[in-house]
Amino acid sequence: MAARTRSASRRGAEPSDTRQALLRSALALFERLGYDATSVQQIVDDAHRTKGAFYHHWESKEALLRDLHEEFIDDQLERARAVIGRDLPPEEMLRELVTEVLMEPLSVYKSEITVFLHEHRFLSDAAFAEIRRKRDEFENIVVSVIKRGMDTGAFKKIGTPQLVASGVIGMCAWSYTWLEAKGKLSPREIGETYGDILVKGLAVSE
Amino acid sequence: MAARTRSASRRGAEPSDTRQALLRSALALFERLGYDATSVQQIVDDAHRTKGAFYHHWESKEALLRDLHEEFIDDQLERARAVIGRDLPPEEMLRELVTEVLMEPLSVYKSEITVFLHEHRFLSDAAFAEIRRKRDEFENIVVSVIKRGMDTGAFKKIGTPQLVASGVIGMCAWSYTWLEAKGKLSPREIGETYGDILVKGLAVSE
Amino acid sequence: MAARTRSASRRGAEPSDTRQALLRSALALFERLGYDATSVQQIVDDAHRTKGAFYHHWESKEALLRDLHEEFIDDQLERARAVIGRDLPPEEMLRELVTEVLMEPLSVYKSEITVFLHEHRFLSDAAFAEIRRKRDEFENIVVSVIKRGMDTGAFKKIGTPQLVASGVIGMCAWSYTWLEAKGKLSPREIGETYGDILVKGLAVSE
Amino acid sequence: MAARTRSASRRGAEPSDTRQALLRSALALFERLGYDATSVQQIVDDAHRTKGAFYHHWESKEALLRDLHEEFIDDQLERARAVIGRDLPPEEMLRELVTEVLMEPLSVYKSEITVFLHEHRFLSDAAFAEIRRKRDEFENIVVSVIKRGMDTGAFKKIGTPQLVASGVIGMCAWSYTWLEAKGKLSPREIGETYGDILVKGLAVSE
DNA sequence: TATGAATGAGCTTTCATTCAT
DNA sequence: TATGAATGAAAGCTCATTCAT
């Protein structure tokens, strides 16, 4: 029993191999079919693993979803913090938030983001409190940039900072719904256009 | 025994009473739990009806979802057609699309729209072809207004009309995700703010 | 209410029109799909009638099956009685039973017979006692002809009359399973061949 | 509580114990009630198993039916091949086909054959192609024996080999409908009688 | 005679999860 | 670490039948 060393299992794969394979399969299936419509069986079949392996790595299907979210939201939050750490006027900061934080990650995390946005509902669970906290922190960063712009006179006071921030986020986030379909443009290029419109739309008229 | 007229028993209720009751219950549950996570049993329990009655009115759960979508998309398309039928400059037309077509219906159809946007996935089915056609027609209307604005020199040529239209729609559509949560503002008020930002953001600088 | 005369209903059709239409549809569907797999809804749809009409004419789906059986078994029994009423030697009588009673009706009642043979199971019910009685009477007629042949020395005593009769009936009845598939031959022609084989097979050797 | 080893709980039963138990129960129920009229619930109750276990072993109720068929048709085909592999004149070969291939297996596979013959309808599915192929091969073996007899002058040319073969098969197969009911005779004894009648009926008169 | 909405039990199947090994 | 048979609750859906009209 003790003799059953690592190399005997799954052709000498690294221990976290299985974990990664399952995560990848789950992500692809969630994106295509939705979290609810994807069964654990499908995930393990797709990853050429077994249910036992799945439940060895996660206590539930939901726990895997949580892990999936965590990865990208950490990245996004980090990017956001980096942007507001820079010494930039609000217009430029908004532009960078749009391109580098809101749009750019879509290049890498398109699937995660699609799943995240689609599976909102499951985030109400207590287990997702941490993720919700991070998402809120991210939103607050956007709000704070708008607010600073309004306070310093760079942006017109059209609506509350919260309302404007929601518009900014929505404009960008929405693109996950059509990105692949119509896509000749990279997320960054889209972000630049949207940044232009938003900055100009918010600027104080001269 | 004598009191058993028209109330204890569901038989002989008003025509399509049952249909309406089921639609209402389904809508509320889909919004709260999602289409997939809502069972037919939950729907009929909520409506105080039976599964038999459900399947008497719809051939499947999906058919009900289709009916739910149809109602509001027809309304939205009609509103959009009305707006482009008016004799207005592109700026005003865009403003009206935003307030009257994109945001205003959220007052009435918040639930339907939430369901509609969340349940995209199920629209891939052939049975939803008509709904998809209408949604495309609607999108094309927004695109055409942006395009006219660019062609007539009212709007700057920032990005393609398609890209800009997607941004406009996204900015508004996204609001369904937070509308209730933060909501002191009416959809119309939100639309006015967003309209201002967008029109100003697209305007040719003077 | 009393004024709702016959011609107002179903385009002036004869009263038994509906009954006949339902019987025809049920027969065709039972043959194709089986009794169990055919729903009352399918029957009434196929006949362009309604469930109400169905249950007006029959108290149950099984009652209709009974009616379906009755029609053809009466015909078959009558034919059998006619044959044994003739003044013929056993060989000829057997030949006529095979061609005129066992095979010939397949030309007319192919569907009924297929259903009858396939839906045996449902005949165990008390409601089918009469049909079972008639089928037994029919079998006894075949047995009696074989027996007379053996008693008079026309047929060899190979096995009991019951056993031989079962073989005769089986040889013919089985043909319903392939009749349509391979069918260039009429039931009568098949019966003539089988009659030849059986009569020769049973004859006392010279 | 201590007694709960291997008997109160079904887990850890002998390998494929469950599979066999379910097959046996299904077979008995299908024979008695018919495939359609037998529910998966009845099967698992009868086998003291659960539905989950059922669907762990078969993907559908139909898949189980297929397994049930396969077992006996393989046996029958093997017997038929063995018979035509022997060096025998057509008369003897026909006699052996009747006794050893058509009738004898009824001793063992009465239930399977009853189900098989009754549930023809379900064999139209693509999944049953293999079974259909085997059944056809079996029929062709019978046809070929008749044909050889006719070609070599052992049998009279009464009807086509196909027609005669169908009669032979029918005469025997039909016996499943009454075998139990009247049964003092073994399938082999029945086969000997039928073999006599058929061989004599087909023989060229001397 | 006939309608058709409604019933309610039952259907086949799915699935997240458990657990002896 | 991992297996995979088994669980049991619940899913979507069907259907013979009833009944107020």
Tally of alpha and pi helices of chain A: 10
Q: Which structural class do the helices and strands of chain A define?
A: mainly alpha
The count of β-strands of chain A is 0
Succession of helices and strands of chain A: HHHHHHHHHH
Specify the biggest β-sheet of chain A.
none
CATH fold type of the largest domain in chain A: Tetracycline Repressor, domain 2
Fold and architecture overview:
The structure is a homotetramer of 206-residue chains. Chain A is built from 10 helices and no strands. Chain A is mainly α. Chain A folds into 2 domains: 12-57, Orthogonal Bundle (Arc Repressor Mutant, subunit A), CATH 1.10.10; 60-202, Orthogonal Bundle (Tetracycline Repressor, domain 2), CATH 1.10.357. The first copy, chain A, is elongated, with a radius of gyration of 20 Å. The structure holds a DNA duplex (21 and 21 nucleotides).
How would you describe this structure in keywords?
Tetracycline Repressor, domain 2; homotetramer; 2 domains; Arc Repressor Mutant, subunit A; mainly alpha
Provide a quick synopsis of the model.
The structure is a homotetramer of 206-residue chains. The first copy, chain A, is an all-alpha fold and 206 residues long.
How do the strands and helices of this protein lay out in sequence?
The structure is a homotetramer of 206-residue chains.
Chain A: H1 15-33, H2 40-46, H3 51-57, H4 61-85, H5 90-103, H6 105-118, H7 129-151, H8 161-173, H9 179-182, H10 187-202
Helix pairs in contact in A: 1-2, 1-6, 4-5, 4-6, 4-7, 5-7, 5-10, 7-8
Chain B binds a DNA duplex (21 and 21 nucleotides) through helix 3.
